[in-house]
Amino acid sequence: MKITVENKKGLEKNIKVLIDKKIISEHLNSKYEEIKKDVAIKGFRPGKVPTEIIKRQFGKALYGEVIDKVLKESSAKALEENKIKPAGQPKIDLKSFGEGKDLEYIISVTELPKIELSSFNNIKINEYVVKIGAEETDKRIHQIAKSQNNFKEVDESHVSKNEDLVIFDYKATVEGKDFKGNEGKAVQLVLGKDLFIKGFDRQLVGLKKKENKKVEVTLPDNFPEKNLINKKAIFECNITSIKKPQAIEINDEFAKSLGAQDLNNLKELISKQINEEFKNSLDTISKKQILKQIEKQKIDDLPKNLIDEEIKILSQGMKEEEINKNKNILENQATKRIKTGLILNAFGEQNNIKVSQEEVNSEIQKQLRMMPGQEKIVQEYYQKNPGAIDAIRGSIYEEKIIEKIKKGAKVDKKEITKKEAEKILKDENEESLNEKKKLSDHSHDHKHEGEQKTKSKKKPLEKKKTPKKPKPSLQKTKYSKKVSKK
Q1: Residue 378 burial (CB < 10 Å; 0-12/13-18/19+)?
Q2: pLDDT in tens, 236-280
Q3: In the 3-class helix/strand/coil scheme, how is 282-300 assigned residue by residue?
Q4: How far apart are CA 170 and CA 242, in angstroms?
Q5: Which of 27, 115, 210, 443 could form a disulfide with 346 if both were Cys (CB 3.0 to 4.6 A apart)?
Q6: In this structure, which topology does domain 149-245 adopt according to CATH?
Q7: What is the reported pTM?
């Protein structure tokens, strides 16, 4: 195999590959012998079909298979031998091919830049520890207690009211006729929440145990029997039990019902939980500080194709006119994101950071636990969308890189109160919102500049929706070949 590399411009390269026809022929003969034992042709015993007959019947298909395999293996070898890491998808242009001919093709590729990493030991970040006071912990525990259902049976003289739990049997009819699923036993309803059929539970207010009540309602749009939607239904209800809400006593028994050892242990767990909630948000600020400092590292040349792809992501949902007006801002943002991603990738490779399949599986399992009852849907989504799994792998890879950088950074640890933490997060949120408004404001300014220059009476542009800023992809670059036959 003969390989010639030509520099076109910057990171653009053409790699000429020439493979002798003898090698192609050897691959083809090997393929003929491979399938000979399985080919069944009338008049010949299995494994005894002449090669020439196999050629006539299957030659074109087999040649296609051989060329695909040779292209895949030789192009990968050409890139590897010349230490070229492609940015995006290389294109393969076949120049000469066919049985009995040399295979000649050109790989057009944009190379990832060589990155000389500067030391990250001078990176400075703030790390916050939120001190949670006893009053905050107690407040959260009281909220949990209030959300727990705790009802006590009442005597027969009690009249039902909002917040009571009413248990009843019913039989329903529409226009005097039964319908599928028109009976219910021991149905439980907390009055005042209106969670059954709209307007149903307020008709159960003012009743006593063992009383009967006719409840008239309009069946909703999501009613299972489609032919009864928006029709009047009468529910004959028999009240079998009424219970009133009772405040839960916050003690050791309550703590144990939540899985804690005792009340003191519950307070420790809740305090830790609140701290973790703040930590996750505050860690995002530390990560942003790292990325801003990484942006300052110099890279002479960046792959234009990656920047163009990033601009497409950033401009999703924008009109073509808006994209043109905001071209410089979009290009600047895309350049920063690609630059940061490449630096982080280089750091990950330099430090041999890997993501195992176990780590990916663990993250998927975490998501499954967060969506009880929908586990099958989530699993099927990942099975049908390999790109979604790649996104998880990329996210884990990024987090591992950030954690590695943190370990070598100069960390200023600060213990702050919950109120201080809330202010930091509020300020950070406002800063992010201001950044999102830049594109909108820039487009607005351009619009008025154009109006002043042309004195146009055109209607003003509709305010655009600023697209969400996705995380930079840190997955290792993959490529697939595109073949154009000339």
Answers
A1: middle
A2: 999 999 999 888 889 999 899 888 899 999 999 999 888 888 888
A3: HHHHHHHHHHHHHCCCCCC
A4: 15
A5: 115
A6: Chitinase A; domain 3 (3.10.50)
A7: 0.60
The first and second tokens of residue 386, run together, are 């390999």
Q: For residue range 42-81, what is the model confidence (pLDDT) as tens digits? A: 767 666 677 777 777 777 888 888 889 999 999 999 999 9
Q: What is the DSSP string of 300-316?
A: S---HHHHHHHHHHHTT
Domain with CATH 3.10.50.40 in the chain: 149-245
Nearest by Cα to 268 from 396, 137, 364, 175 = 137
Residue 409: name the closest of 124, 119, 126, 117 by CA.
Answer: 124
Query: Which tokens in the block code for residue 11?
Result: 């990171």
Show Cβ contacts of residue 469 under 8 Å, excluding neighbours closer than 6 positions.
314, 436
85 residue type, one letter = K
What are the contacts of 181-187 at 24+ separation with CB within 8 A?
Answer: 181/224, 181/225, 186/240
pLDDT digits (tens, 9 = 90+) for 466-485: 333 333 333 333 323 333 33
**For residue 193, what are its two tokens?**
């929440």
Residues of the chain with CATH 3.30.70.1050: 2-110
Rounded to whole angstroms, how far apart are CA atoms 376 and 368?
9
Tokens of 79: 């890139």
